[in-house]
Design a protein that fits this description.
This protein has about 140 residues and is mainly alpha-helical. The protein contains 7 helices and 3 strands, in the order ααααβααββα. The protein has a 3-stranded antiparallel beta sheet. A hairpin with a 2-residue loop joins strand 2 and strand 3. It is globular.
């Protein structure tokens, strides 16, 4: 057996999460349907195929860009791991650019930075849009 590269390890994590996640169309996760032994074999095959088609530089970049778990995301966004409940809340509301790998919430640092920049711009334009409405209400 050959030694796993960081690219293969990342692809294996993705493949295993894929086997455990419930399909969007409903039904059971693949691992529940085929059993854990076959799911492990399928995950290894999927990881191998993913690693073969993904350039290693891209995989390394994704690995360095990836935040795994609400506590890691909270540390990145708020500099406070204890704010992970806030992350769960934002994700549940659909107001936060995160995704799930299996049962773990994940986000990309680069995506979060872009999202924060968009929030800053939206906050300014939102305030400019609502100021006339507030003034109009005061005048009534």
């Amino acid at each position: 057996m050959h030694k796993a590269t960081p690219a293969t390890e990342l692809c294996l994590d993705v493949a295993r999460a894929t086997m455990r996640v419930k399909p969007a169309t409903g039904g059971l996760p693949i691992a529940s349907t085929v059993g854990s032994d076959l799911a492990d074999i399928l995950a290894l095959e999927l990881a191998s195929r993913l690693a073969a088609v993904m350039p290693s530089a891209l995989v390394r970049t994704i690995g360095e860009d990836l935040l795994e778990g609400a506590d890691a995301i909270a540390e990145f966004v708020y500099s406070d791991r204890t704010m992970k409940r806030k992350i769960y809340h934002l994700v549940d509301r659909g107001d936060f650019p995160a995704f799930r790998m299996g049962d773990k919430i994940c986000a990309r640092k680069s995506t979060l930075l872009s999202w924060i920049e968009e929030q800053e711009k939206a906050g300014t334009s939102h305030a400019q849009r609502i100021a006339p409405a507030i003034d109009e209400q005061k005048g009534q």
